[in-house]
């Protein structure tokens, strides 16, 4: 299993970033709840337990077992203080205080901090009580109780004492269950308190409801907490937008009042697989966007606005429509490739609008077969950042495509252009936007079909640890696997991955270890799914399954002659079988040990690699080292490999020394490729993170591009990331039965095409030179080959890989058009 999970900020150790920010001088908000200071804190000096154990390095120490009830709080930078207790990357944390005897309990408090460096306020702090430490009863939820009395979270960094005096319960044990925001990686506190209540609160006859536990509260509450958070964040953003307009103060106040008057009670939401985190999430959430629609109307926007979108730029749910512009939707394409464009629609009325779309004056108008329209869906993410990335196909009728545009929520229409039978030429037309009782809108469209044929089998290797063998894994199921494989193949995935199980079904002859019997069915079944693959990638995982493999090898000691002989027999038998299927040895690439790094034991990796290469030297040894300083890593690791695939975010972070090391490895004969495994996928920039990886490949002479992981939806439907355990990492949308396109995966497809443009231009230059042709066209083409990718990769902001990082996302297409012009000039 691949485990690399880099933070979005390309920091492999997010705690370092928090520590560095601690040098900032920041203002602290006053602690709330001062009125409770006179109450007796019966938790003072009491013993408690922490589960799970604290994990945040810069404040974890032996004192964590006493510091939360010592009566001391910090006024310094919170999470670098030894008096603070912190957790990193946990679902929730439990603090269970033993009061020594049953006490009447009137309140509780917890001091925490947040506001910078990725530290978020807790989503919930549940208070539970117990007489015996085994059976716990719910007593209240501290975040909501505190905010009812002391208002919303402060802006920026602050320390806050969450406090309530509204509890009416009793118990010997008090448990605080701290739940971070979805995707919030940190939990911090430096003091907890429990306030004594009057003895009359101890009332066994009244009871304390049904017992529960932390896991149940977390599981049952996370969907409702996430929906409430989404509405709260969007309401706050909308209020800011209203205040930033030049509308009269009375109008602003009226709109803000409508937000405050929106119903707070959620509709009944069933926390099961039927729920989809598609905006708006419920009726109260839709009401907020109704206010935004009225805002647009009062600002003079048309009932239906339409404008050409900037491809790959992110959208936000709270935004203003673009005023009418003459911007043209431009599509430049060869025959046979896939290229995207975008149209944005905004509805400023109080009712949904069904919009019909059709083309005018383009080949095959009004419904050209070479265009697919997608009704882009808004989905919330596990981090609480909504994105417009899902691309379900729009409904197509006999006279156009139809999409629904809800009040106050921008609807993007994504276009996938796949021209196969339109003659080369420059076509000027438009897309007609029609809705009842309104004049039609026309957005100009320019389609230029260049006189080149895109190859059906591009040059760049593309893979993503999809593991489609043995029925699939992670988000790949028996029900969606066929659609998943087809989806990937349509996006040029030609280096699929399988788990090592496809090569682990074998048995040596007991009397002659040079004879081996293979069970080829697992391998053959997988190959049948990918009959046209360029390479077959297999993760042997000797670090995880080394014992089982060693047993299959008769227990031969690593590196011994018996081991080498048995591994040789094993790989020769598999190669012979592949040859019988028409697959050459260099089409098999083996990842023996995933992500070797500082401190890794690479003994098994080296032993396997040497034995395999001695027996079948054409089989590829593929490794993805993650040494932060590769120059200090064991040289024999790199020498054992055919292909080295460093992590691209590490490459960007490591700068010239990191790059220089791998360039030297290239010069020594190793092939270079790139992979990325950051997450969550939905917050990564389709342009900078996904599309430009292939441009990095071209710039560095690399031949392959890989991503973790096409099928990793982290245990939850892509349509409801609230239930994801981490990440998620899939750049498309998966649930148990369906596969839907996503912008990140579409960017990967375009990246493969971009790389092929350079390949085609290089071949054209070579042909021209071979024919004795020189001149300005050839010179300009050579300049593009050497400098085109560099100019794109050097643009401001492109090394910032989050989608919400601002940057110019048009540069790659500008250079792509230059390549098309250069190809035409040479031809």
Q: What's the helix count?
A: 16
Helix-strand makeup class: alpha+beta
Q: For the CA atoms, what is the radius of gyration?
A: 30 Å
Which overall shape is indicated by the principal axes computed on the Cα atoms?
globular
Explain this structure.
The longest helix is centred in the N-terminal third of the chain and has 31 residues, at 214-244. With 827 residues, the protein is of the alpha+beta class. The protein has 16 helices and 34 strands. Strands 1, 3, 4, 5, 6, 7 and 9 form a seven-stranded antiparallel sheet that branches. It has a six-stranded mixed sheet with strand order 11-21-20-13-18-17. Strands 23-26-27-28-29-30 form a six-stranded parallel sheet, covered by helices on one side. The radius of gyration is 30 Å and the shape is globular.
Notable traits:
single chain, 827 residues, alpha+beta, 6-stranded mixed β-sheet
Short synopsis of the structure:
By secondary structure, the chain is α+β, with helices and mostly antiparallel strands. 29% of the residues lie in helices and 23% in strands.
């Amino acid at each position: 299993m691949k485990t690399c999970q880099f933070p979005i900020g390309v920091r492999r150790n997010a705690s370092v970033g928090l520590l560095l920010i601690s040098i900032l001088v920041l203002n602290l908000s006053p602690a709330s709840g001062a009125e409770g200071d006179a109450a007796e804190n019966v938790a003072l000096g009491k013993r408690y337990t922490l589960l799970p154990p604290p994990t945040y390095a810069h404040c974890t120490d032996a004192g964590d077992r006493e510091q939360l009830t010592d009566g001391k709080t910090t006024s310094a930078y919170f999470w670098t203080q030894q008096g603070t207790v912190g957790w990193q990357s946990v679902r929730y944390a439990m603090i269970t205080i033993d009061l020594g005897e049953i006490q009447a309990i009137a309140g509780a408090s917890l001091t925490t901090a947040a506001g910078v460096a990725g530290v978020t306020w807790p989503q919930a702090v549940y208070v539970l009580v117990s007489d015996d430490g085994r059976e716990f009863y719910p007593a209240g939820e501290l975040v909501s109780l505190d905010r009812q009395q002391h208002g919303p979270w402060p802006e920026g960094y602050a320390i806050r004492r969450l406090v309530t005096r509204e509890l009416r319960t009793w118990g010997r044990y008090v448990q605080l269950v701290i739940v971070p925001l979805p995707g919030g990686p940190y939990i911090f506190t430096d003091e907890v308190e429990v306030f004594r209540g009057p003895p009359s609160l101890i009332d066994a006859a009244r009871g304390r409801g049904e017992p529960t536990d932390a896991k149940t509260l977390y599981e049952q509450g996370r969907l409702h907490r996430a929906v409430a958070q989404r509405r709260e964040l969007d309401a706050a953003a909308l209020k800011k937008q209203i205040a930033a307009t030049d509308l009269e103060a009375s109008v602003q106040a009226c709109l803000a009042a409508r937000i405050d008057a929106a119903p707070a009670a959620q509709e009944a939401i069933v926390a099961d697989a039927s729920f989809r985190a598609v905006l708006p999430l419920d009726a109260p959430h839709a009401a907020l966007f109704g206010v935004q629609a009225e805002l647009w109307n009062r600002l003079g926007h048309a009932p239906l606005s339409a404008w050409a979108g900037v491809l790959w730029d992110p959208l936000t749910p709270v935004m203003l429509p673009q005023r009418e512009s003459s911007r043209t939707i431009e599509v430049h394409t060869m025959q046979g490739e896939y290229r995207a464009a975008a149209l944005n629609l905004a509805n400023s009325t109080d009712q949904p609008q069904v919009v019909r779309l059709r083309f005018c004056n383009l080949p095959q108008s009004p419904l050209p077969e070479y265009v697919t329209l997608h009704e882009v869906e808004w989905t919330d993410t596990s981090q609480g950042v909504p994105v417009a990335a899902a691309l379900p196909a729009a409904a197509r009728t006999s006279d156009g495509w139809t999409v629904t545009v809800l009040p106050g929520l921008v609807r993007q229409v994504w276009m996938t252009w796949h021209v196969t039978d339109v003659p080369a030429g420059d076509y000027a037309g438009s897309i007609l936007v029609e809705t009842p009782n309104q004049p039609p809108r026309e957005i100009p469209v320019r389609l230029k079909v260049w006189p080149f044929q895109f190859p059906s089998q591009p040059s760049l290797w593309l893979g993503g640890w999809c593991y489609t063998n043995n029925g699939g894994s992670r988000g790949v199921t028996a029900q969606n696997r066929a659609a998943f494989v087809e989806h990937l193949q349509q996006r040029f995935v030609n280096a699929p991955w399988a788990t090592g199980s496809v090569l682990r079904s074998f048995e040596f002859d007991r009397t002659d270890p040079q004879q081996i019997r293979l069970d080829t069915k697992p391998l053959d079944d997988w190959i049948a799914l990918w009959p046209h693959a360029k390479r077959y990638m297999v993760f042997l995982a000797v670090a995880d399954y080394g014992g089982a493999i060693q047993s299959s090898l008769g227990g031969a000691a690593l590196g011994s002659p018996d081991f080498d002989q048995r591994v040789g027999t094993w790989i020769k038998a598999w190669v012979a079988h592949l040859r019988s299927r028409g697959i050459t040895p260099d089409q098999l690439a083996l990842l023996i040990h995933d992500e070797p790094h500082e401190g890794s034991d690479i003994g098994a990796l080296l032993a396997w690699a040497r034995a395999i290469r001695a027996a079948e030297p054409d089989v590829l040894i593929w490794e993805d080292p993650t040494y932060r300083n590769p120059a200090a890593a064991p040289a024999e690791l790199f020498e054992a490999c055919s292909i080295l695939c460093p992590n691209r975010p590490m490459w960007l972070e490591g700068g010239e020394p990191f790059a220089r090391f791998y360039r030297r490895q290239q010069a020594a004969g190793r092939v270079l490729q790139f992979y990325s495994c950051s997450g969550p996928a939905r917050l990564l920039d389709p342009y900078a993170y996904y599309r430009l990886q292939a441009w990095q490949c071209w710039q560095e002479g690399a031949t392959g591009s890989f991503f973790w992981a096409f099928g990793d939806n982290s245990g939850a439907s892509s349509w409801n990331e609230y239930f994801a355990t981490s990440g998620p990492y899939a750049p498309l949308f998966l649930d148990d039965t369906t596969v839907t396109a996503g912008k990140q995966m579409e960017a990967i497809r375009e990246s493969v095409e971009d790389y092929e443009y350079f390949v085609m231009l290089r071949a054209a230059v070579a042909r021209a030179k071979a024919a004795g042709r020189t001149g300005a066209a050839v010179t300009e083409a050579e300049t593009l080959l050497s400098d085109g990718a560099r100019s794109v990769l050097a643009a401001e902001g492109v090394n910032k890989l989050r989608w919400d990082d601002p940057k110019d996302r048009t540069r790659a297409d500008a250079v792509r058009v230059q390549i098309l012009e250069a190809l035409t000039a040479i031809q």
